[in-house]
Amino acid sequence: MEQKEQNLVQTAINTVRVLAADAVQKANSGHPGMPMGAAPMAHVLWSEAMNYNAQSPDWLNRDRFILSAGHGCMLQYIYLFLTGYDITMEDLKSFRQLHSKTPGHPEYGLLKGIEVTTGPLGQGFANGVGFAIGQKFLAARYNKPGFELFNYNVYAICSDGDLNEGVSAEAASMAGHMKLGNIIYLYDDNHISIEGDTAIAFTEDVAKRFEAYGWHVQIVKDGNDVNAIADAIKKAKAETSKPSIINVRTHIAFGSPNKVDTAGAHGSPLGEAEVKLVKKNFGFDPDQHFVVPDEVLQFYRQRGKRGAEKEKAWNELFNEYRKAHPELAKEFELLSSGKLPDGWTDKLPVFKPEDGKLATRQASGKVLNAIADTLPTLMGGAADLAPSTETLLKKYPSFTPENYGGRNFHFGIREHGMGSVLNGMVLTPAIIPYGATFLIFSEYMRPPIRLAAIMKIRPIFVYTHDSIGLGEDGTTHQPIEQLISLRSIPNTVVLRPADANETAHAWRVALEHKSGPVVIVLTRQGLPVIDQTKYTAAKELEKGAYILSDAERPSIILIATGSEVALVLDAQAKLKEEGISARVVSMPSWELFEKQDASYKEKVFPAAIRKRLAVEMGSTLGWHKYVTDEGDILGMTTFGESAPAGDLMKFFGFTVDNVVKKAKALLS
Asked: Which of 107, 274, 390, 415 is catalytic?
């Protein structure tokens, strides 16, 4: 590199550092130190290493970049601005302000170029593994000789905080096992956390740890050496059989005379006086703010446009692909648009009472296998529980290093990692991912569920063994508070189907849903199939709640979800024998019901019928909205017990006689 070019590169990097200090100072909030220390590695990524087109951020074969250390988001915002994405200097000045495109951590959907919402540490690291899986699957299914459509890499900058969090260990282990050579992560090893030097709590040998996971590991001793960083990235690209991590020794708040290498630069502005010293240190006017030299802006804008020619060539390649492989091209274009093939719902099975009792987890497995052929990018698995959750696609192979076209995933006993990986997979065009475990273990997955809801993306979470009905495993495995906990997450749809047919329609609703995660909650124990010719059809599940069985001039409404629906149907029949008219409402989804108009809600729950009894083997929280002040709830207010399911039902009162008793008490 000639001296003139070296000077320009150094000025460009220092411009980023000064902009970061200015933006955080103006907001009087944020993390200036990380962008200042990591600017050289980010420079190499955006100016040299990554394939992208700033004018076309959604180009399908672009490299993906994830800032897992989301607190340092000003680094990403600055590079998106400099390279020509749809972000202005005013957006940088609006950092962390109400309704700005530059919030305190990167948020998917607010700004093009942000591939995923990060913030909770470790999530972006694990999301990247999902992105990498997505690329490998697309390549395996759609790449053909002469048509290498999908060969992009997944880059991330991660921090010591990411590597402290357990989810990164789960995801790193997965990535190493799967030999995802399309991952290139840069570890911002600045030795500083909020409480001080990382050595107070983090002294492991990171390089050896990742070598043990099966990663390709390199160390760059000087985080300001752009040539060494560029060389390490080239070597990482050349290593295609292992994921790569590059440990880059950086200095937080580099250029700040008094705050470099201190915790004070981590989560607080440097202070006006210190920002002036930073500017002096880098040759900038200390009294000017948000300055970008013309030659720096021109340099980065040119780099941001380089991908236009690559995208043009890719588009031409895809046009030829359409001619050579028309069916595959048509399939990909349809699925990547978010649409589903015509007639796929015709494959949904219809179950009959004579089929006998069927656990909804078993019905779910039958549904998945019935629709798998027509939805070629539907894929998923379980946290080592596929036989129990019934989530295996029986005709299809597993996703392995030897077969990236497999559709069954073995996530291992890594629920948290599974959820975060699913978020990366679902952000890959065309892919429809699901992941399964027991409902109780949704507790391990709260961060990715919540982030999926924030992003309004649609992974499908399948949770089985949904109540005390699982029996002998006892209190540790019997979910109580999980249903209301999941229902409390905005933008999340929870579906608890009553039988096999409601389960089929739960999958229909989940696959057609667009704006947030869907949770399907299923039983371990067998349930009778509700007669579709005698009662209201299960397709009404799409409305969230519906009148399953009505009576003439009902005096009470029995409301239930899941396995308890069959129980209240039997109670309705017994009440009828005693001359009491009861309406039965199946309510598989509160969220879908709340989307209905007022007239439909009044039809299901007329204001004139004040006597209502809700029956659900979970926490009673939240049900008061539907039972009114004249109603009651039969639910769980304690943890369960270890015993056969039948004994538990009797002990906790989930019997026909007890439902009838409670209904009569309300009417007395």
From this structure: 415
